[in-house]
């Protein structure tokens, strides 16, 4: 007997269905049940089993899509394949190419360019077909909306009717089907389906119906064995009584007296939470869940509803992590383009996209090889060997950071890289040969990078994608991550869909077109999280809650434009056209969201609603309405009285970095350490910086850049001057030693070695600038000097290592002296600086007191020259009064004799000041190795810390020089 029921919105729909089932003992197979979605079937089977207290033979339970497919294939025996999105785009693209008036004109020439508009066309024509709208209706709506539609939109409408007609002709000729085609077909043929053999068909929990669904339900009702169970909720009366179903709900069930919702029914307890961001919402949940866990009140009757998938992983990491995997179930789709596998594939595609011939752009190459999936590929069962290999390659390529392109063979043939890899591996006591590492790197390059260069067609591209991911799965530690396999499986399915699609034989003219096509397709794909649907705390998307009842409901992201998702209409049909065709609009989507929100919260006992409110986001209209209803009952109480604010507890307290004590291991290391003037300068400036840089050997990670940094320019200039003067040692310099052609040739030759041939742009200008600057140095400083006084170069880049004993403790000192020359009878030690600023280099002896530690940092710019002076005089046994030192400031605007910044200006300064600065050097060495003196922060943190590479470790990143000016 046909019946149509309406149950109250606080009743359990699953129980209502279970109570209506016909059985023969424990056999329920005479029933067929259809819900809008898939999830209620799990709960209905459990309800039946609990009712029977044991195993049963369940009824046939389907979602609406599953029911249509079942009738189409099983009952009506229609055999054809339901196409995927990529198939639909392929067919539409072929129609597009043949059209005399294609959408977008010539803008969508290739399939990857057509994909986005093709997807909109497909969604629209599928909607038109499931709503039984014919081509003529689409064509006829144009004059109805003439006044308010732009010209381009009207042209689209005309084109759409063409696509609409041609697409389904093509589908039928290929013996294929789509979702809408199956619905449309079933609506006409369901009376022939033989469903009469079921004693009862129950259609439960529906709200909004398409035209095809209405016809299907009307025909099922006429067959005579169908029962319809609707659930009371916002807008249900309008939907049912105006739906042209051919029947009205006249028989109330379980106390529902009428179709009109009982607005006087008390709402359950609702709690509102306002947060500055999503993480605040998640943290707000944590305290409540912690209490419920103590009470043992977290089970399948508790649901976390996530209208936005972006909230899933904050919830997993910060809330669900306290539960075991068996204590919760995630059943919602997550976008594939937000997964790490997509990040890996994107890095791979980008590294190939940016190639110049066979040369890879090194930053993109490094991004690929340093992706966790790649750098953790196993070598003889170990991932650490691969990490060492790739990080060593990174260091080597960054060292030559302005060489921004390299071939794989150049990397594989770089002996220095493999020598450094072996040195690092030997420290780990691994028995690995250089050939082993070369083979390992070559294998990775072949199976990941080279495999993805060049494709025969779209199908071949997809097959290679499967091969790359399979290689990662079989050879990397990635598979040990608990979420990797679901991602991997979903991507393999997506690649298979492409490789088996109607587009598989399509040849694209550019490699980037394959990549763009893939990325656009992946944007349509989701990975399903498969858990135990009826066990443990439930984590669901908003629509996954349809027809289900929970006691404790937590809904996050209750913000406007998320729930309801107003305005998110991916259609080429304007609003007026949709209204004219009686197609659902955003207003109808809002009504669907309002209905399911209403049935969800009114069936619960306790509800927690979380939303973000700031200058960009506002709470959902559903929240506003609930608060307004509560205000009316409480006679106008302020809404803020109902809302709890979730705020971060941030203590904005800036403390001076703590000192670090010296352990015995540190002291032992320091006693064996070779001190350079640079390390002592660092210690003098900041002892913590010395500790991090020279004891812990922490260094700021360098990046590859197209620009040459100052430190590299300085090294390059040193190299040029070494090459220039190297064959001029041991004799007096003459003007003939400085020819313009020679300096230009040296600069060009070394520039090519370090930065490649034919520099362009900024590098070309830099090369020219270096040439001109060094020409000025020779013409305006060097030649005038040798004309005035005899100059003989004694040595260049001389490395001196000495030991000194101070208070019975021996220290190692080392220095690299740029240039040592003799001017008449006096020896000069020169150090090149590309800077023009002398303030950070000179020593103010008049302000320096060796017995007052506080004066050292203020008076000493650099300890480098006196350090070199001591090393050289001790090494060569030369009287200190016969030596002077100076910096040559090559960066000064005017090059002349004033670029010299001497340590001592007169002989009297040498006699008076040398012992003072030498004493300070010795005291610094003793202080560094004194166990009673910890490593302390800089005394002048306002000037030292802002530029320090370790400020994030010390917590002084809040400091800015601007604040102190």
Structure description:
There is one protein chain. The chain is of the alpha/beta class. It has five domains: 3-79 and 184-252, Rossmann fold (3-Layer(aba) Sandwich), CATH 3.40.50.300; 81-174; 269-332 and 539-645, Rossmann fold; 337-528; 664-686 and 700-934, Lambda Exonuclease, Chain A (Alpha-Beta Complex). It is built from 37 helices and 25 strands. The strands form six sheets. Strands 11-16-10-17-18-9-19 form a seven-stranded parallel β-sheet, with helices on one face. Helix 4 (85-98) packs across helix 5 and helix 20 (458-475) runs antiparallel to helix 21. The N and C termini lie far apart (88 Å). Residues 145-149 and 253-264 have low confidence and may be disordered.
The N- to C-terminal Cα distance equals: 88 Å
Radius of gyration: 39 Å
Low-confidence stretches: 145-149, 253-264
Q: Could you name the CATH class of the largest domain?
A: Alpha Beta
What's the number of structural domains?
5
β-strand amount: 5-15%
Shape: elongated
Instruction: Write out the strand line-up for the largest beta sheet, numbering strands in chain order.
Output: 11-16-10-17-18-9-19
CATH topology of the largest domain: Lambda Exonuclease, Chain A
């Amino acid at each position: 007997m046909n019946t149509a029921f309406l149950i109250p919105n606080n009743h359990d729909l699953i129980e209502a269905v279970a109570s209506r089932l016909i059985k023969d003992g424990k056999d329920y197979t005479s029933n067929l049940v259809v819900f809008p979605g898939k999830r209620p079937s799990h709960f209905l089977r459990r309800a039946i089993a609990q009712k029977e207290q044991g195993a049963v033979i369940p009824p046939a339970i389907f979602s609406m899509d599953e029911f249509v497919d079942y009738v189409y294939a099983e009952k009506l025996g229609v055999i054809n394949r339901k196409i995927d999105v990529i198939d639909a785009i392929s067919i539409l693209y072929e129609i597009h190419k043949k059209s005399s008036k294609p959408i977008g004109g010539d803008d969508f020439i290739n399939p990857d360019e057509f994909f986005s508009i093709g997807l909109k066309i497909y969604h629209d024509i599928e909607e038109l077909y499931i709503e039984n709208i014919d081509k003529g209706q689409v064509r006829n709506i144009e004059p109805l909306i003439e006044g308010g539609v732009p010209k381009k939109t009207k042209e689209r409408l005309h084109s759409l009717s063409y696509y609409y007609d041609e697409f389904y002709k093509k589908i039928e000729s290929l013996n294929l089907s789509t979702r809408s085609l199956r619905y449309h077909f079933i609506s006409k043929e369901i009376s022939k389906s033989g469903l009469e053999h079921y004693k009862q068909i129950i259609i439960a929990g529906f709200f909004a119906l398409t035209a095809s669904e209405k016809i299907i339900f009307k025909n099922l009702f006429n067959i005579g064995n169908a029962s319809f169970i609707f659930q009371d909720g916002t807008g249900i009366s309008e939907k049912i009584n105006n739906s042209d179903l051919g029947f009205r709900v006249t028989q109330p069930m379980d106390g529902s007296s009428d179709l009109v919702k009982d607005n006087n029914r008390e709402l359950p307890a609702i709690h509102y939470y306002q947060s500055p961001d999503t993480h605040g919402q998640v943290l707000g949940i944590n305290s409540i869940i912690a209490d419920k866990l103590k009470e043992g009140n977290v089970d399948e009757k508790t649901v976390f509803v996530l209208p936005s998938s972006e909230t899933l992983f904050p919830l997993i990491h910060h809330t669900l992590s306290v539960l075991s995997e068996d204590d919760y179930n995630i059943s919602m789709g997550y976008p594939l383009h937000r997964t790490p596998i997509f990040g890996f594939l994107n890095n791979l595609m980008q590294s190939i996209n940016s190639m110049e011939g066979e040369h890879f752009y090194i930053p993109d190459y490094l991004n690929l090889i340093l992706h966790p999936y790649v750098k953790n590929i196993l070598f003889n069962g170990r991932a650490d060997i691969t990490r060492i290999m790739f990080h060593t390659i990174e260091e080597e390529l960054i060292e030559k950071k302005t060489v921004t392109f390299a071939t794989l063979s150049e990397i594989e043939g770089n002996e220095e890289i493999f020598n450094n890899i072996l040195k690092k591996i030997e420290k780990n006591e691994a028995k690995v040969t250089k050939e082993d590492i070369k083979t390992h790197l070559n294998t990775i390059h072949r199976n990941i990078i080279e495999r993805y260069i060049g494709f025969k067609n779209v199908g071949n591209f997809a097959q290679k994608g499967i091969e790359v991911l399979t290689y990662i799965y079989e050879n990397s530690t990635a598979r040990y991550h608990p979420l990797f396999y679901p991602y991997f499986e979903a991507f393999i399915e997506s690649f298979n869909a492409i490789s088996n699609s109607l587009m598989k034989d399509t040849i694209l003219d550019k490699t980037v077109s394959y990549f763009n096509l893939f990325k656009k397709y992946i944007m349509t794909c989701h990975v399903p999280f498969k858990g135990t649907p009826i066990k443990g705390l439930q984590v669901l998307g908003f629509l996954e809650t349809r027809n289900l009842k929970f006691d404790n409901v937590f809904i996050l992201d209750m913000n406007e434009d998320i729930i309801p998702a107003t305005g998110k209409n991916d259609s080429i049909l304007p609003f007026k056209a949709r209204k004219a065709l009686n197609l659902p609009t955003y207003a109808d989507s809002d009504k669907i969201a309002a209905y399911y929100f209403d049935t969800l919260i009114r069936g619960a006992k306790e509800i927690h609603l979380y939303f973000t409110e700031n200058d960009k986001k506002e709470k959902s209209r559903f929240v506003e309405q609930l608060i307004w209803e509560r205000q009316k009952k409480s006679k106008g109480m302020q809404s803020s009285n109902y809302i709890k604010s979730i705020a971060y507890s941030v203590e904005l307290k800036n403390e001076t970095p703590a000192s670090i004590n010296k352990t015995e291991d540190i002291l032992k290391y320091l006693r064996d350490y070779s001190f350079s003037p640079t390390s002592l300068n660092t210690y003098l400036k900041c002892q913590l910086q010395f500790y991090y840089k020279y004891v812990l050997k922490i260094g700021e990670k360098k990046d590859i850049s197209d620009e040459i940094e100052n430190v590299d320019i300085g090294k390059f200039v040193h190299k040029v001057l070494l090459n220039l003067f190297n064959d001029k040692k041991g004799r007096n310099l003459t003007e003939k030693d400085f020819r313009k052609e020679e300096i230009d040739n040296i600069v060009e030759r070394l520039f090519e070695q370090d930065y490649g041939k034919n520099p362009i742009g900024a590098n070309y200008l830099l090369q020219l600038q270096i040439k001109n600057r060094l020409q000025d140095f020779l013409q305006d400083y060097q030649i005038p000097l040798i004309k005035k006084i005899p100059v003989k170069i004694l040595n260049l880049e001389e490395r001196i290592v000495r030991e000194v004993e101070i208070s019975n403790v021996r220290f190692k000192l080392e220095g690299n002296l740029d240039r040592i020359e003799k001017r008449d009878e006096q020896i000069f030690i020169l150090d090149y600086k590309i800077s023009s600023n002398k303030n950070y280099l000179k020593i103010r002896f008049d302000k320096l007191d060796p017995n007052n530690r506080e004066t050292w940092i203020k008076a000493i710019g650099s300890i480098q020259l006196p350090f070199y002076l001591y090393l050289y005089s001790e090494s060569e046994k030369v009287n200190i009064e016969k030596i002077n030192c100076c910096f040559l400031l090559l960066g000064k605007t005017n090059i002349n004799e004033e670029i010299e910044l001497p340590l001592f200006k007169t002989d009297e300064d040498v006699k008076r000041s040398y012992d003072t600065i030498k004493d300070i050097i010795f005291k610094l060495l003793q202080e560094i190795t004194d166990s009673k003196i910890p490593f302390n922060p800089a005394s002048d943190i306002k000037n030292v810390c802002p530029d320090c590479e370790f400020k994030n470790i010390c917590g002084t990143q809040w400091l800015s020089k601007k604040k102190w000016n």
